[in-house]
Amino acid sequence: MTAKTTARLSAVGAGVLTLLMVAMLALAAALVVVPKIMGGVSLTVLTGSMEPDIHPGDVVVTRGVDEETARELHIGDVIVFLPYPDDPTVVTHRIVAKSVSSNSVAFITQGDNNNAPDYWGPVGTHQVRGEVMYVVPKVGLVRQWVGNHVGWVIPVVACLLLGYAVVSFATSFRTQRQENPT
Questions:
Q1: DSSP assignment of 135-171
Q2: This prediction's pTM
Q3: What is the CA radius of gyration of the chain?
Q4: Which residues of the chain have pLDDT under 50?
């Protein structure tokens, strides 16, 4: 392989790695930083109740809402809420009806793929945890897989990064020696 070909391959490799790094940083910002700033969370969707718009394995990113801001939600908004007291299970469904009384607001919710409103009845503002801002397709599948295999994923990624560092160091050292022979 000629030096010119090696230089081109090196430049292409560096470009691909740079693009990959930028994409990973953008994904991290979309899934971690934005929800944190907005007081929300990113959650992996586990069921098909919101298809065709939100699929199992997608990640929904929410903005946090408190009881006061939950009063401002409208029919058509997709929310994340706790349907049962003392149960940490969260549900992501659309508001299909809203009732307002002098001192309370309640929502009737329904999954887009469901035939009827949710059977647990009205959802109070105290149960709402967030409003969906956007959806990141299929990233939840990767997140779940990594979470289930974290015991060996972290050491493998660490070894790959260490290997990349060694190769980068060796390549720069070799390039420096070729440019400045003694």
A1: EETTHHHHHHHHHHTHHHHHHHHHHHHHHHHHHHHHH
A2: 0.77
A3: 24
A4: none
